[in-house]
Specification:
With 475 residues, this protein is of the alpha+beta class. The protein is built from 10 helices and 18 strands. Helix 4 packs across helix 8 and helix 8 packs antiparallel against helix 9.
Length: 475
């Protein structure tokens, strides 16, 4: 059993650098664990000592705070050594994975099987669990849709399972009674030590519908994207209206930063198509017909993901559509040869709001960004991920150089657009270490206090990730 004073051994070595340029947090200690039993021991010791813990999976929360806690004075609980794929059920199509299991690890385990992983465009060595807990989006669908169940260590050290995952690691599906699975997504109610993730049935064919347009066509293209998003074509993966680069209109190019692959003169629509070949042909025809109403089209093509050559610009997107994670897109944008990105010359911040899936809202969101970019003389990239017939997850990346003036401008830009988006009715769906503690305060929920009651029940000593969303309710 770990004693309380054992979690106070200081190790700051893994907290150097942050690609978002956030204020460094004072990290008291770092503890690395490799089993759920060790997590329970550390949590019990932390509760006894009154030492707050901040759990991390692999710590690649880039643009949102990287490995830093939300507040000072935390002991980081590093779960990256928990790398077991506990169950790989190739009959029913799910896996039970620990927080340190990466996209590359699980994708490799699925090679040659009837199943593949829904991968994100981030690094191949990022955590599946960590991304799901942050409501990440994959190539095929949002990770929320494939997060089936959790194993969680509560702030008392007790072990809880949700979603039909029993105490012996068997997954049954959602069983009778209340299910708390989504309560542990983007919360600090406990430490997630395992997750049941739904896999994607490997289809007969995978293609990419890819169209490029001039930026002035955004409003008309948004209208088409709304229609396609609401149509629910059976072969469509996650449509992305992407690569919309907004740069200051009256500033010299050397006064702001952009990724090396940026092209501000065009934006693109990318739609993975997965299914039977005849079904894909039908979806392709419907997409092509819908896009004929958009002016200023530069190109439209459909690519077979299996045969895209390595030198093709869409090669890495083709890999991801096939369930093969890659770090190449990240490295190309930053101009680096590895994924040690915390101290690269180009830095970035993330801002992720929810936008109603309608043309007016999408145009309004871009107008807010465009005006803010001019005010702060800082460029950004906007992307709309069409996650449902109702809303789009918007991803805004604010690029900036690593100097004090650029860092201040970038953070001021994110602060301002967060406020303006909230006023427009576009709340965030993922937060960062600077804003997580105030995120619930700007929500329109009728009652927030019961969530604090749940926090007090599951984490009575308040040791799990203070400053991250929930606090004990005051009655």
């Amino acid at each position: 059993m770990l004693e309380a004073d054992q979690i106070l051994k200081v190790d700051h070595s893994i907290h150097q650098g942050d690609i978002g340029g956030h204020r460094p947090r004072d990290v008291v200690a770092t503890v690395t664990v490799d089993s759920v039993e060790q997590v329970q021991e550390v949590v019990r010791a932390a509760a006894q000592a009154g030492a707050p813990l901040y759990p991390l999976s692999t710590g690649a929360n880039w643009g949102m705070g990287s490995r830093f806690p939300a507040v000072d004075g935390c002991t980081v609980l590093d779960l990256s050594a928990m790398t077991r794929v506990r169950v790989l059920d190739l009959e029913h199509g799910y896996a039970v994975v620990e927080p340190g299991v990466t996209q590359a690890q699980l994708a490799s385990a699925l090679e040659g099987s009837a199943w593949m992983l829904n991968v994100t465009s981030s690094c191949a060595d990022t955590s599946i669990v960590g991304n799901a807990l942050e409501r990440g989006d994959g190539t095929v669908r949002s990770r929320v849709r494939e997060t089936l169940a959790f194993e969680v260590v509560l702030g008392t050290g007790e072990l809880l399972t949700t979603g039909g995952l029993d105490g012996r690691g068997r997954y049954h599906g959602t069983v009778a009674g209340p299910d708390l699975t989504t309560a542990f997504v983007e919360s600090n109610l406990g430490v997630v030590t395992a997750m049941v993730v739904s896999l994607v049935r490997r289809p007969e064919a995978i293609e990419l519908a890819h169209a490029c347009f001039e930026p002035d066509a955004f409003a008309e293209l948004a209208e088409v994207v709304v229609r396609l998003g609401r149509a629910g074509l059976p072969t469509v993966g996650l449509p992305r209206l992407r690569d919309f680069f907004l740069v200051p209109s009256d500033a010299p190019a050397d006064s702001y930063a952009l990724p090396g692959t940026a092209d501000p003169q065009q934006l693109s629509l990318l739609i993975p198509l997965l299914g039977r070949r005849e079904e894909i042909r039908l979806s392709e025809r419907l997409i092509r017909e819908a896009l004929t109403s958009v002016p200023d089209a530069v190109s439209f093509r459909t690519l077979d993901a299996e045969t895209v050559p390595a030198e093709h610009p869409m090669y890495y997107r083709a890999l991801m559509a096939r369930g093969i994670p890659t770090c190449a897109s990240l490295r190309r944008g930053l101009g680096v040869s590895d994924c040690q990105v915390e101290d690269t010359a180009l830095a970035w911040l993330m801002f992720m709001p929810l936008i109603p899936l309608d043309r007016e809202s999408m145009v309004r969101a871009v107008d807010i960004l465009r005006q803010a970019v001019d005010r702060h003389t800082t460029a950004l990239t906007a992307e709309f991920n069409i996650v449902s017939p109702h809303v789009a997850n918007m991803v805004v990346q604010i690029a900036f150089g690593r100097n004090p003036e650029s860092t201040v401008r970038a953070h001021a830009l994110r602060d301002e657009i967060r406020t303006l988006f909230a006023e427009a009715g576009f709340p965030t769906y993922r937060s960062n270490i600077d804003h997580a503690s105030s995120e619930l305060a700007i929500r329109q929920d009728a009652l927030i206090a019961p969530l604090g009651d749940l926090k007090a029940l599951f984490d009575p000593h308040g040791v799990i990730a203070p400053g991250r969303y929930l606090t004990t309710a005051a009655r």
